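Recall the central idea of this unit: under ordinary conditions, the amino acid sequence of a chain determines the structure it adopts. In this exercise we apply that idea directly, starting from the sequence alone.
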Amino acid sequence: MERGLVWSALLLVIVWLTWSGKREYDKLQKYQEWARQFEKSKYDIYAVLGKKGNSLVVGIPTPKGIKEEKTVSLSRIRAVELYWKKQLLSSGKEIPERGEGLLELILEEETIEVPFTDIRIAAQWRDYLNGLLGGG
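Accordingly, the structure predicted from this sequence is:
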């Protein structure tokens, strides 16, 4: 009986891992389809970001596709800021080796937050966008 319980628990873990892996795979497949339209794009488990012409598109990846898409013209972006552990990292500051980052796109009427699991990739996007805006 004890062995049956152990094997049942193990089977449940395997089923859960398979289901989770399939969901992530589906999210990645949908992102790849979505990203074809952009000159530059990024996928993260938290958010997707794409640049096409003078537009920047931010959304949330799901197994069914990209949700909550926001499109903003680069001309509407007033500043791009990078945060690590709620601390603003200016362009000259050294970027930490690890950790999550948050890219803030500051517009006149709102702020769009783009989370990153890798602070270094977030810093690359900050520098790229600031270069496009003439502030880098």
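The mean pLDDT is 88.
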